[in-house]
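Section 3.1: Structural characterization of target chains.
Under the original work plan, the team committed to producing a structural model for every single-chain target entering the pipeline before any wet-lab resources were allocated. The record below documents one such target. The sequence was received from the expression subgroup and is listed exactly as submitted; it comprises 361 residues.
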Amino acid sequence: MSGSGSKGSGRPPPSRRKDVKELREAGYLSADIAHRPPAKKQVRASLLTDCGAVSSPFEWSDLGFPGSMVCPVCRCPGAACLPFVPTDEVLEVFYVVLDEYCFRRTYIPCNVRGFLADYIAEHRHIATTYKHKRTEPAILIYESRSYASEFKHRGNYSKFCGSAWFEFSNDYALRAEDRLVFTLDNSCFDLKVETFRDGERILPLPSVAFENLSNARYELVCSAVMPRGLEFNYHNNRLLVHSLFRTSSCVRCTPFVHVMTATNTMKFTMKIPKFVVSSLRRFVDIPTSAGISLEAYLGDTHVIMPSSFKLCKQDGRMVIEKTSFSEFISVTEYEKDNVVLITFDESTYDRSVSIVFQRLL
């Protein structure tokens, strides 16, 4: 591993010497540059190239290199990686620009790959010495998602690949020119990675929030009544799942996602759709009118208030009594355009039914 060129000579392999010549003629390389992995702890953390290391994930900039170019050594998009300037600084952050084949692998810039290989090997050794269950550092994403991607370190390239990498790229719908910011944090066993596109953080696809649900729970989530035009991202869906299955006493009828209107917050009129009421009838008896409780979870606070309802003869909707709902709105401080999840709980003690409101947005 003393060099990343042919047989450790510090020169690109023959198939890529033409690329080096073209780079030199274009003015990107002024002399023969020996591309080599860094000596341990001899990386300049402030070095910045289009496929290199940065001192901050927000310091990247376009240096004007043609987008079709790749480093002739490590195959990363952009210009050739610059040589190392030996210093006492330790690499902490670097980023990688993805190419069109990022769904199956991503190459690590040659001016940081040696240090990354040492970092992974050191953590692997510690895990083996202390007999940890996992001996390979995984890719730990900002959203606390972990992917046990395979890391291959060869004579002239290093890359992440394998089925876990494929899953990661699919979950985040990664594409060419996206950037991955790697943070080498010795306090964490795994590799911290953040995903960016045009300077904005990339979230997992919304459907990824449902990946660990059982078939029955997934079907319940998919049955939810949603307002037209309302779209949830990954975090919204995570909150939806958490709220829906917060309690074991939740009645598995159709969930109702509702955008609060002025009619709800100013006139204090609240009606549950007939479709939801019909699904509720499959689990509990619903008279034409009865007492009911209104509940809400506000952080660590659990609000419970007595109320009543009646079924509208014209359209079969459940209408909540105005006075109690007015007090409920006052306590919960729900406002117009708040998005709430409405479900039903059935008490295991006296079989009484509650309407549960939980804010999503």
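Confidence is low (pLDDT under 50) at residues 1-16, 26-67.
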